[in-house]
């Protein structure tokens, strides 16, 4: 896996990133840090990636278990250290899983397997952050 991040120039703190799969992402800094607030911050991208990683796992695990899953949203709320390096210290994951006849124990198992075994991003972040999670199941 490879990505390339390039500074957009001296007029701010905006960067463009290209993934190995050919996708482009823009990142920017906060105005107080020289940015223009035109794109997500790099640490927001870390949270986004973690949310995507764990949601992907939860859906895949449920589908493999033949659950009739129709949707999966995860909201991450994080706290960071006050001093540098400002690592994540607490992250709460709130999952809203939509489907038909979903078993709460199957959804909880999928979340736990993601956090403990499959999601590389959350496993890395667990080295510095305390994790909590909640699950809401919506019947359709």
Automatic annotation (TrEMBL):
Task: Extract the Gene3D superfamilies matched here.
Answer: 3.30.300.20
Q: Which Pfam families match?
A: OsmC
Instruction: Tell me the InterPro entries matching this sequence.
Output: KH_dom-like_a/b (IPR015946), OsmC/Ohr_fam (IPR003718), OsmC/Ohrsf (IPR036102)
Instruction: Give the domain of life.
Output: Bacteria
| NCBIfam families recorded | PRK10738.1 (NF008009)
> What PANTHER family does the record tag this protein with?
PROTEIN YHFA
Q: What is this protein called?
A: OsmC family protein
Q: What organism is listed for this UniProt entry?
A: Pseudoduganella plicata
């Amino acid at each position: 896996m490879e990505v390339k991040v390039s500074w957009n120039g001296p007029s701010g703190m905006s960067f463009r990133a290209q993934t190995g799969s050919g996708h482009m992402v823009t990142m920017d800094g906060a105005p107080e840090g020289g940015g223009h607030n035109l794109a997500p911050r790099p640490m927001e991208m870390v949270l986004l990636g973690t949310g995507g990683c764990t949601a992907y796992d939860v859906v895949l695990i449920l589908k493999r278990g033949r659950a009739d899953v129709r949707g999966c949203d995860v909201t991450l709320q994080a706290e960071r250290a006050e001093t540098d390096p400002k690592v994540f210290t607490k992250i709460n994951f709130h999952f809203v899983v939509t489907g038909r006849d979903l078993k709460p124990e199957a959804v909880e198992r999928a979340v736990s397997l993601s956090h403990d075994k499959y999601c590389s991003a959350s496993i890395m972040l667990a080295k510095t952050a305390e994790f909590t999670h909640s699950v809401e199941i919506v019947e359709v």
